[in-house]
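yo, Glyoxalase/bleomycin resistance protein/dioxygenase is done. seq:
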Amino acid sequence: MSDTHHIGIVVTDLDQALEFYRETLGLEVVDEFTLAGEGIATAIDVDDATGHFAHLTAGTDGTRIELIEYEPAGDDAHPTAINQRGAAHIGFAVPDLQAFYEALPADVDPISQPQRIEVGLEILFFRDPDGNVIEVVETEE
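structure:
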């Protein structure tokens, strides 16, 4: 089994996404770069593609969140329901979910208030500026 290197999320505005992930989730940018040319265009099968990338730290295991703004931008293919086939979400752990919830910026609209689930954990779902689903779960640290 390979180790997880990163989780990639395509965004429409890299600067806006970076602000959200830094301010709302407290992630730190560790690298920013742009890829253009035949290699990236062939790899993603999009003629004349350019990708603007940012890597953010997402914990102590080394996993990174990779935000990508592509030119040309693709069509919106975002599933609207969390349980829809193809839908994805990224999960983060916090020691105090209620405190995290109360500190959310005013422009973040949670899908619901924190909920205790059958296994005893509290969870919260909300969306980033592009509609990507974020889950935050309370864990003991």
